[in-house]
What does this fold into?
Amino acid sequence: MAATETRGSGEKQGALWGAAAEDWASLMEPLGDKLFESVLARGAFVRGARVLDVGCGSGRFAHMAAERGCDVTGLDASESLLAIARRRMPAVPFLHGEMEALPFPDERFDIVTGLNAFQYAADPRHALAEATRVVGPGGQVIVATWGQPGACEVTAFLVALKPLMPPGVGGPGPLALSEETALRSLATSAGLTPVSLHDVDLPWEFSDFQTAAEAMLSAGPTTLAIQTSGRERVQDALERAIAPFRLASGGYRIENQFRYLVAMKGRL
It folds into this structure.
């Protein structure tokens, strides 16, 4: 799913996350289904609920929410991913925009989700404050991010990727909000009341290395590494990093965990 940074960096982030949009939509986004199903089971996604999915990517979660009867809107920084979402669901509005400058009036939605999105903002508090602004009193904001590094075997690849990134690159990344205290503090600072925290096991399974490479190299951070160091070096780093997770069949199973915080606008 694509995300943005403060003051116009959505163009940059959108280009990164949309560089291999078809691979992301067909190979990576479906791996999040267990997370999406868990979020939808929280009970607020009833028929007619007005839902904004921030960083909607190619619209898989939005589609699942719409199938439950929710009134869904998607927003993303990648036009390439949005094109896929619109093709899949012509009746759902999918808008191009910045998560830190949401193009909606105050209290427009009942639920705002950011599933693998807010941690990529240069100012996550400001991005979450925007989500708080557009949700109504008593509404929910749901923030999903990676779990603890020790619960995510993909961390091995993130470590291998670091030397292949541009010099001096730092700041937000996949694990930026993984700590429970960081996630809860972020919600509180944005004017939300944390309600519950949930961990979801999310293993990645690939039939062979080529499929694993096409999927994992479609994410924004890997696109940046490819632009910096070349696809061959990044793919070689990936092959070494995931070698311990190769199965006897020749496929791969990489154990990961996501966590999400359900927060409410107002007090319990």
Summary: The chain is about 35% helix and 20% strand. The radius of gyration is 18 Å. The longest strand covers residues 135-146.
